[in-house]
Write the structure tokens for this entry.
Amino acid sequence: MSEDHLTTEMTASLERLRRVSNDRQADRHDRQPTASASDAANRREEAADRRHDALDQRAEAADRRDETQAQREAVLDDRQAALDHRAHLLDRREGEN
């Protein structure tokens, strides 16, 4: 075989490899999902929904804390009223003696 023939064969072989490589790369590119404008809008809307949900959860937690605080204050008020009543009864008893 002559050098020219080998060079021609190598050149042809390299060209086939390039075509196969390019075809495979094109196939990979075709399989990759592309982000459309509607996909981007959907992602933004989902992110806004998640932020809104998080804010709702925070507001609900604050409401529960406020309710718990109100219940604690009501219990304390009831206890204070019971103590005041008891003190009044003791004062009356002492006044009778």
Summary: Helices lie at 3-31, 37-96. The mean pLDDT is 88. The longest helix spans residues 37-96. The two ends are 136 Å apart (CA to CA).
